[in-house]
Design brief:
The protein has 200 residues and is of the alpha+beta class. It has helices spanning 2-33, 44-67, 79-82, 110-126, 147-161, 174-177, and strands at residues 72-76, 92-96, 102-104, 135-139, 166-170, 183-189, 192-198.
């Protein structure tokens, strides 16, 4: 009788051990995927997004370097550092070819940030089947650019508009108006606001 009970208990215990081992394997896998491993906080989603972001930056940097006269290059936050502390896996750094140093992208000036954003916008939609930018409006941003940077930005926008995209620019910069072929002019007087097209 005791032998039968022992065999039954051993069978139950063996089954319990198998369940515990499977549970531990799943728990370890979940911990790694969710980025909860001590010293490595990057989750699987961020890891995959870094792969696509790297491809986007490669193409966007060709424009950004050109627009900044070779001065800047966007880089991803170092993977080893990105996994330490707060998850910074998708943070960007900017490398200066002048100083040879990296700094946080938030330290860019308004004009430099505008050029960086413009460089990335088209590449993001080119690399995503879910995003289609048939039309893009840019509200200001040009006022903080010097003459050379403004010319470069306008040239890139014209290249983008040369395809199937419609690019709209909202600006008060007088020099910029001379670059635009088709304009929707808004004027204001004592009678109110007036709108008229000025087409090339």
């Amino acid at each position: 009788k005791d032998t039968e009970i022992l065999e039954a208990v051993e069978e139950i215990w063996s089954g319990r051990q198998q369940v515990l081992e499977q549970h531990n394997r799943i728990t370890r896998l979940y911990t790694v995927i969710s980025g909860n491993v001590s010293g490595s906080r990057m989750d699987l989603e961020t890891f995959v997004q870094r792969y696509y972001l790297e491809r986007i930056l490669y193409a966007a940097n060709r424009r950004f370097e050109e627009m900044s006269a070779g001065q800047f290059e966007l880089r991803m936050f170092d993977e080893k550092k990105a996994a330490i502390g707060k998850n910074k896996g998708l943070d960007l750094m900017v490398y200066s070819n002048v100083t040879g140093k990296e700094r946080e992208v938030r330290t860019l000036s308004g004009g430099e940030s505008f050029m960086a954003a413009l460089s990335m916008a088209d590449e993001i939609q080119e690399n995503s089947a879910a995003i289609h930018l048939d039309m893009m409006f840019i509200d200001e941003g040009f006022g903080s650019l010097d003459e050379h940077a403004r010319e470069q930005a306008v040239r890139v926008l014209k290249e983008m508009a040369g395809g199937s995209k419609l690019i709209g620019i909202i600006s008060h910069v007088t020099e910029l108006k001379q670059e635009m072929e088709d304009q929707l002019l808004i004027t204001k007087d004592e009678e109110g606001s007036h709108v008229r097209w000025q087409l090339s």
